[in-house]
Amino acid sequence: MKAGMRDWTRRAALAGREVGRGLLDIVLPPMAHDSREAAAAAGLSPDAWSRVIFLEAPVCDGCGAAFEYDGGAFAADRCAACLASPYAFGRARAACVYDEASRGLILKFKHGDQQQFAPLFARWISRSAADLLAEADALVPVPLHRTRLLTRRFNQAAEIARPLARAAQRDYLPDALVRAVATESQGGRSARGRRLNVRKAFAVTPAGARRIRGRRILLIDDVLTTGATAEACARALMEAGARAVDLAVIARVRTAREPPK
């Protein structure tokens, strides 16, 4: 009886705090992450929210690019580039386009140590990659090399993957995949240069191999630029025994995949 009373009291206290927080938000609206304005939705100011280009269905199943129109039941589910040269990962989803509107938010999170963006971006991905999350057995963040982790102090992909896995009730495997080679920055490199830069950069740990074997893995990263990093991670996971690897990111550049010439 006493245990039951304590449990009821705890639930009542939690409910009271939620009601109090809701009332406080009405009186003092929560501030936006990107400015000192009151947040319009999902933690963004009205101006920032209106400028972000969110990717809505239909999208390419292979790279997450938006199709210009819905081709109907008989349309191909992949763009010409993905049909001609599929990625090493199976499917991909992106929450939004990586452009002037989203870049500043992502860079504040990634390089500005503004970790309050993590749950916001996790919610974005939970919407855009809902189908991939439903089929995933576990989530794996793209890792940073330990030297870069020391300077940055946190792995942006891990900070997104953790709340995403918790909300989706999926296994979170932050140590399954490691960046074994301290590669140079991918910035400014061609697609081929990016692939070569990360070709042997990632490895699956022995403990990670036991936890991914035979399972469908959802790889989490911040931005899909050419797909080189995600492909290198997917190959390492597949070689270690993963049944399949999909990808979910905050944003993708419009030219991540170019049609074959």
From TrEMBL:
InterPro entries: ComF/GntX_DNA_util-trans (IPR051910), PRTase-like (IPR029057), PRTase_dom (IPR000836)
Residue stretches making up the Phosphoribosyltransferase domain: 207-260
The protein's name: ComF family protein
Name of a matching Pfam family: Pribosyltran
Parts of the chain that traverse the membrane: none
Family, similarity comment: Belongs to the ComF/GntX family.
